[in-house]
Amino acid sequence: MFEQLGVEKDVEVSIIKFETESATKALLIIPHVHPGPFRNVGSSLLPSMLQEALERKFGCVAAVPHGLLGHELDVASQKHVKRIISTVVNASLSLKTSASLASPLFQARREDATVCSQVFGDCALLSLSLAPKTTEDLPQELGEFALNEARKRGLSYAMVINAHNSLNGAVPFNKAVEELQKAITESLRHVSALEKLPVRVGAAKTVPKEFGLKEGMGPGGITAITVKVGDKTFAYITIDGNNMVPELREKILSTIKALGIDLGEVFTTDTHAVTALVLTRRGYYALGEAIPHDRLVEYVRKTVEAALSNTEPVKVGYTVEMVPRVKVIGEKKIIELCSLVDPAIEKAKHIAALIFSLTGLVLALLVFWLF
């Protein structure tokens, strides 16, 4: 059904490759498509499918955090998901690694906005969060804003992760975007001026067997990429889930600090494989709602510890790969379809813009209609 309703769009995938003298150490992939709409439909399983394909090809740890986009970029069919995966695998194979220097990770805060930035060669990697306020889908315009700010400072790339790491009520959209823009500018201004030093990377993955989709944990499990620059160590933690309760992020960051991590951030993939499986208001559990915090934090601690134990010098490569003519569902089609189900959707269009986008609301109604 979605294949017939979908619209074609060229989509980007950001790739960062960490490579030792003999092998690929880790891959960080940011797809510019949304992992939805639900269960195994469309691109809901894309993060773990992409992760599995890269692990199989390279024998390395692969992390696939969320990008800047919403349900309008749900992929319409598995055929197009496979095209994206094939393109990313091939691009990663041919990607050369030449950058051996990196800046420390720097964190800027503006009111509710937190932006972490690190520079590898002439590529800035940023993560955006509003935690402990809600951090849900964020607009693509923030990526364009970050790229323009990076280029002002002599950088060629700006790859942006939506940390998607706190579910805590609604947040005014315009105010959140303004705060994030200010934090992006401050973070890039500061990090671009920092001295770059040789970089060492560790990586590890854990898939907890005791938790599954119904508890909010996707098949991709937990990945940790640790980055050591000078005498400072940083950690990027990605969990295959659809957001998390706000206090869980704080517990994780506090725990890894005790391991010697100077600064880090926690991401979720926003996998929608966990949705429409349980009878809750949202139809899924965010991480930390059904999984005991102490158990999940302990899994993260062990994963970071494992990554720290295999840290070694790397070179870094990065690119943005274009996948042409991907069939996505499109916001207009979702709204049109759901408006047939419930005319009340039309009223929702006039609600003040919130971080919970209209497409998210519409899609939730679609899920319950279909199931």
Tell me the structural class: alpha+beta
Mean pLDDT: 87
Give me the count of strands.
14
Largest sheet: 6 strands, mixed
Structure description:
This protein has 2 domains: 2-325, no CATH class; 332-370, no CATH class. 33% of the residues lie in helices and 27% in strands. It has helices spanning 2-5, 46-58, 78-94, 141-152, 173-191, 246-257, 293-309, 331-341, 345-348, 358-370; strands at residues 7-19, 24-31, 61-63, 101-102, 106-110, 113-120, 123-129, 157-162, 197-206, 222-229, 232-239, 263-268, 312-313, 315-328. Strands 4, 9, 10, 11, 12 and 13 form a 6-stranded mixed sheet that branches. Strands 3-2-1-14 form a 4-stranded mixed sheet. Strands 5-6-7-8 form a 4-stranded mixed sheet. Helix 2 (46-58) packs parallel to helix 3.
